[in-house]
Amino acid sequence: MSKVDVGGILRRAAAADLFFAGLSTAMVMGQVIIASWRWMAVTRALDGRVPFGLSFRLTYIGQFFNLILPSTVGGDAVRIWMIWKSGMTPMAAGASVLIDRLTAVLGLIVTVVVTQPFLPDMPQSGLLGLTVWALAVAAVSGTVLAMSVDKLIGGHRNHRIFSALAELSRDVRAVLLSPRHALGSIGCGILGQINLSYSLFFLALSLGIPLKPIECLVLWPLVVLVLLLPVSISGWGMREGAMVVALGLVGIDADSALLLSLLTGLIGTVAALPGGIIWLLTDVSRSDTTQTAEALSSPDT
């Protein structure tokens, strides 16, 4: 912040086109719907059968708690606790949220790999491309390891922690080895990155910053990779630094990149605040998932 014209940034923000800024905000709020679909796809693979209404409420509540805790740790913990209260077993609740987070990361990695050929031509492009492929290999290796833990544990499953890890490994396979559930969950992860990339494009458009849609689609997922590190509150600071570096690759000056990043953070904050109201009004009970399971078992459903 000390290296930019703060007064100029504020004046540019005040002159933003409200239509495109509003469109960007609507897309950020719509991200909760996509995340809810992704979690539903995971729980269906695990026979959790969480209805959309409950998934949407708990996902929105999780977004609210992500505002005040590092990365997505706080929101995920709250989701686990509340879905457990609704009737899931503790193991199933934890597995559903952890695998949901895994599919979101896999969707992000797929997006980064697919868009990698469109990276800007620059001296660092070789190193950046190598880093992208290294991340992809690491993601695939980690996923294969997660699916194989129960086989690696072997005869140690009598211990509680090993038994839990073995069950989690089987749940990961249930999601990722089912084409329907894998496509649904990872597909929603990819759709979420596309949605946020276009949200960034419309916000840039509102500020007169010359960013192209393909540039947003290529660069925004790289910024999100940095935000996965749980070293800042709701990404503040990390996002700004990453955005300045990423947008600098396509010739966007630091002032414009910082303005875009700050407004992205503010829009994300405003969009997540209703989750706090939903949290205050939500009283999940064990009947939530029980009634849903009964409805899904009916031949008429």
UniProtKB/TrEMBL annotation:
Keywords of this entry: Cell membrane, Membrane, Transmembrane, Transmembrane helix
Pfam families reported in the protein's UniProt record: LPG_synthase_TM
Membrane topology, record value: Multi-pass membrane protein
Main location: membrane
Superkingdom as given in the UniProt entry: Bacteria
Transmembrane regions: 18-40, 60-81, 102-119, 125-147, 182-205, 217-236, 257-281
Subcellular location per the Swiss-Prot or TrEMBL entry: Cell membrane
Keyword Cytoplasm part of the UniProt annotation: no
Cellular component per GO, a single term: plasma membrane
PANTHER family named among the record's database cross-references: BLL5419 PROTEIN
Protein name: Lysylphosphatidylglycerol synthetase
Organism per entry: Paramagnetospirillum marisnigri
Lineage: Bacteria, Pseudomonadati, Pseudomonadota, Alphaproteobacteria, Rhodospirillales
